[in-house]
Amino acid sequence: MKISKKLLLILIMLSGLVITSLAFADSGKSLGGIADSVTTTIGSVGKMLVAISYLAGFGFLTFGVLKFKQHKDNPTQVTLGTPIVMTLIGAVLVFIGGFIAPLGQTFGVDSNAVGGFTGTGTFTGSGSGSGK
Fold first, then answer.
1. Band (132; pLDDT cuts 50, 70, 90)
2. Neighbours of 57 (CB within 10 A)
3. Residue 77 pLDDT > 70, yes or no?
4. CA atoms of 35 and 24, how far apart (whole Å)
C-alpha cells in the first residue's frame, strides 16, 4: 500500500511539472515579456491576499463576538483575553488593505503601485471612500 502512495505522489509531481512547462512554453516571449507577466501576476497575488485578509478579518471579528458571549455565559471557561485578541486581530486583518499605499509612499514609492499592486478597491485614506 505504501508503494502505491509513493507512486501516486511521484505521478502527481511529474504531471505538475509537465503542466507548468506547457503553461510557460510560449516561444514568442522574450525575457522582458516574461518579466512583465510575472509583475502582473504579483499584482494579482496582492489583490488575492487582501481579499483573504478581509475574509479572515471578518471571521475573526465574528468569532470574537461569539467568544464575548461565551465569556458572559461562563467566565471560568473562556478568559476575557481570548475575545479581545480575536477582535483586535480581526480589525487589523480588515484594515490591512488600507495600509498598502501609505506604506509604499513611506518607503519612497511615488505612486500607489507597491510591488505591482495598485491598491484598487481598498481604502487609501483619501476620505472619499472610493479607493481611487
1. very low
2. 19
3. yes
4. 12
The span from the CA of 35 to the CA of 57, in Å, is 33
Computed over every residue of the chain, the mean pLDDT equals 75
Torsion of CA 80, 84, 87, 91, to 10 degrees: 180
In terms of Cβ atoms closer than 10 Å to its own Cβ (0-12, 13-18, 19+), residue 120 is: middle
CB-CB contact of 123 with 129 (8 Å): yes
Phi, psi of 15 (to 5 degrees): -65, -35
For 101, other C-beta atoms within 10 Å of its C-beta total: 24
Place of cell 506547457: 22
Q: What is the pLDDT of residue 129?
A: 46
pLDDT computed for residue 92 by the predictor: 92
**Which among 92, 64, 88 has a CA at the least distance from the CA of 78?**
64
What is the pTM (predicted TM-score) of this model?
0.56
Q: Are 119 and 97 in contact (CB under 8 A)?
A: yes
Residue 61 phi, psi (nearest 5): -60, -45
Give the residue among 113, 131, 111 at the shortest CA–CA distance from 122: 131
